[in-house]
Each structure stands twice: as C-alpha cells, then as structure tokens.
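thread from #wetlab-drylab

HS: before we spend reagent money on co-crystallization trials with zinc ion, can we at least see a predicted complex? here's what I'd submit
DV: go for it
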Amino acid sequence: MNTTKLSVSSKDIVAYRGDLLVICMAQPEQGLPSCEDRLRPLAMNALELGDFKAKMDEILILYPDRAIEKTFGARRVMLAGMGKVAETEDPCVLRETCRVVGGNIARQCAKIQAGSIMISLPVLSRLGPGGVAEGLAEGVLLGDYRFRKYKTEDKNEVPYPGLTKVVFHTSSGMGEVRKGVERGERAARAANAARDMANEPGNDWTPSRFGEYAQGLSDSMAMSLTILEKEDMQRLGMGGIIAVSKGSAEPPKMVILEYRPPQPAETILLIGKGLTFDSGGVSLKPATGMQDMKFDMCGGAAVLTAMQVIGEERPDVGVVAIIPATENMGGGAAVKPGDIIVHYGGVTSEIVNTDAEGRLILADALAYGIEKFSPCCVIDLATLTGAVIIALGHHYTGILANNDELAERIKEAGRCSGEPMWRLPLGPEYSKQIESEVADIKNTGGKPAGTITAAAYLQKFVGDVPWVHLDIAGTAWEFTEKSYIPKGPSGIGTRSLIHLVRNWSAFLRKTG
Ligand code: BES
Ligand code: MN
Ligand code: ZN
C-alpha cells in the first residue's frame, strides 16, 4: 500500500514486538532447513516432523507461548519457504524467487490481518543482501496492492488496510540492504501507481488525467513537460490522434515529459498508448467484456510511472516519454471506415476499421518524437492487438523490433523483472498486408498475423531508428497468476523499463 513504511534493522530479532516475524527459509539438499538459532526451539517440532520443508510457496505459522518464552516479542512467527535456491546460479531467477516469496508474505498477512511485520533476510550468496532485500521489498509491496477507492465501507466488517510497517532484518550489510529496499520500493510503488491509473474507470482516468499526473512529476522532480492540445495537434498535422478523438467529448492530449541529465550522451524515447477507453468507435466492439477497454491506457501508465523513478534516480541517460492520450468513441463526428487521414510527416492512411486505433495515435507520436528528439532508440508499449493473446496467451509480452541488440536488451530487462517477453518477426511479407488501394497504407492487415501487421504499421514511422514495440494486450491485465500480481491490471512494463534504464550502457556508441 502507498502508506506502508519500510525500514531496515539489525536489532535483536527475538525482541521484535510486532504482529508477525517472518523467517524466509531455503530448502536444503539434505537434512532440515536451517533456522535462526534463537527460533530453533520453537520451530523444531515442525521441522523434525517434516511439516515444513521450506518448499517454494510453503508457509507455516507458529505461535510462541509468551508465558514460557518470556523474551519473545512477536505474536506470531511465519516460516516462508523459498525452495531449492542453492541450485540456482542466475541472479535474475533468484530475484524473482524473492519477489514471489515477498508476495506470499503479503498475501498471508492479509489473511491473518497482520499490519506490522519484520522479515529476516535469507542469505542467497549469488544474489547478495542488496538484491535479496530489493526482491523481497518489491514483492511485498506489489503483493500488498489493493484498490478499494470505490468500495464504500461495509459496517459489519472493517477491511484489512494493508501492511503498515515492514522491517527488514539483517545482521550485516546494512548499507547495501537499505539501498536494495529503496530500489525495490521505488519500482513497486511505480508499478502500483500504474495499477491505480488502470483501475480508475474511464470516467475518471481521462486523457487530461495523464497530463495532470505528468504535471505533478514535472513539478516535483525537475522534468520538463509539454502537453500538446487538440489545436497543437491540428497545427502539427497529427491526423491519427485527431481522427481517433473525433467521436469523443473528452479532449485528446499528447503528454511529453523530458528527463535530461547534465551531460546526456544519448536520449531514449519511450512511447505509451494512452487510450483511456476503447469502444472500437464506429466499428463498435461487442458489449461483452467491453468494460475491460478502460485498461487500454496501460502502455501510457507504464511509461509515465517509469518516468517517476527515472526522475527520482536521475540516471546518466536522457529519457523522453510521450503519451498520446484519447478515447475512441462513436458519435456524429467520429472517424468512419473508408476515411483517409494524414499522419504527422505526411503518410496517408485508409481507415478500414476504427477499432484499429492504437496504431493511429502511436504513429503520430513516433514520427513526431523521432523528428523532435533524435533519440538513440525508441521503445513503445501498447495494448495493441487481441491477436497477441492468441499467439502468446497471458504469459508473454510480444516484442517486435527492427534492431536485434535493442530487442535483446528489453527481453533481458523483462526476464529480470519477472515480465517475460517473446519476439515475433517483422518483414516485407507482413508490410504488404497493409498496402492500400487508395492511400499509402491501411490500418488493418486482415486476420492473419494481426500482431505483426499492427507493428508493421508502426514500423512505417520509425525509419531506421532502433525501435522496439511491446504488445502488452495479453499481459497488462489477466497476467500470469503470481503471488505479487493481483487480479485486474498488473502494472506490466513499468519495472522492465526501470530495469532497462538502471542498467543502461551507451547504445549508439556500442552499436553505431
Ligand atoms: N485495444 C485493442 C486491443 C486489445 C484487444 C487489447 C483485446 C486487449 C484485449 C485494440 O485497439 C484493438 O481493438 N485492436 C483490434 C485490431 C483489429 C481491428 C485489426 C483487435 O485486436 O481486434
Ligand atoms: Mn481498438
Ligand atoms: Zn485499443
């Protein structure tokens, strides 16, 4: 939760007087799971009887008898299994283990209504105390997420307010642990902010709200903000976003937030689809499930919340974020099938299906952003096609790219963030599918390879700038069930982008 306070301590663990003391335990190759000496008498029976083996996802709660164990402060002790971590060499896999265990802890706390907890950090030599703390902090905060804003209180049952205090206990490496907790906390809070934006209904989270949120970031951490209004878009010739917004009473916004380090070697351009409600427009979507189309802004949410961490951490690389934001509605003035529009930069497009609107607003943002900011590379995130769900289900984000090195970097950032990604091809065969009889291109390529032809549309606007498109339609909500991923919007993309920027090494110089 937003109000949860995280801290680090090395004080005597037995004296901790909170709701719950958590011991994360790895499963040994042989014998009993190792246990903090002071807790051994308490846990001994369970370990010896084999009631707790420290398997992944295993949880056991013990209740110290404070009449006997007078020194004991905590009311409950929880053993949280981590599985066989000794076999794992890969720090990214170990960090995911910590995240999942963190999520398990948060879920268990909700069940027993524990508010203040202490977590004793496990030792995972291949990850180090900073990484362990980071993964656990991230997992706990992500797992403790809930969205109750619109639930009016039930008088008979006071809802669990979430964790209030989480203390990470370590006997060594305080500095590293503190930094790890802070990194995990920033990333989780950003992803939770993206979930909040998505959970807000379309009548609250309008294009203007993206602008207001960006204004808040710009005010509080020295990033410059430009919001292009409808008139600016018209003047600049952004025919894509104008066309999509025509059926809506909500004014469209193109939100541009710039982070500039003192000596920027290069600038990354991030673009996120901010479609605050996608009805399909005149090519109306079926009613069943249409309410989920309030989530069609998750790409924009990922980009904007990643900027929040970038603004805080101030890396050496410049980052510019653009969020084209609008609704897609039907109405007397709405764009119609058969209409021809002119994108920023002059490419003409025949609108075959008004429901293929994401590519229209992204095309303007890509063309404009690349011309204006000369980035070293561009990454866009969008809930772009239902077809990516057919291809990859709800487990992998689709990657489409014109540059292998950049695609690999993003894929690795995703893997290390617990957000797996899989690359699909591009090519002239697919681009041919979107050739139009009457304009330069058309906005759908038919049923076959819908995810690829959507990306082929975007490719028209990036030229030879290294570019990666992430189709998050399958993962932005209903993402793979995990302890730290709630039902509803997952906050996907935010943490992968943060990981990418945190670990950025010069791109142009290396590949150019
Ligand atoms: N926002 C949708 C894509 C989508 C569909 C996201 C389902 C999540 C779940 C997008 O704007 C859209 O409607 N795409 C169409 C394209 C088609 C008309 C070529 C689609 O996927 O059906
Ligand atoms: Mn659509
Ligand atoms: Zn859409």
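DV: The first strand starts at residue 5 and ends at 9.
HS: ok that's useful, forwarding to the group
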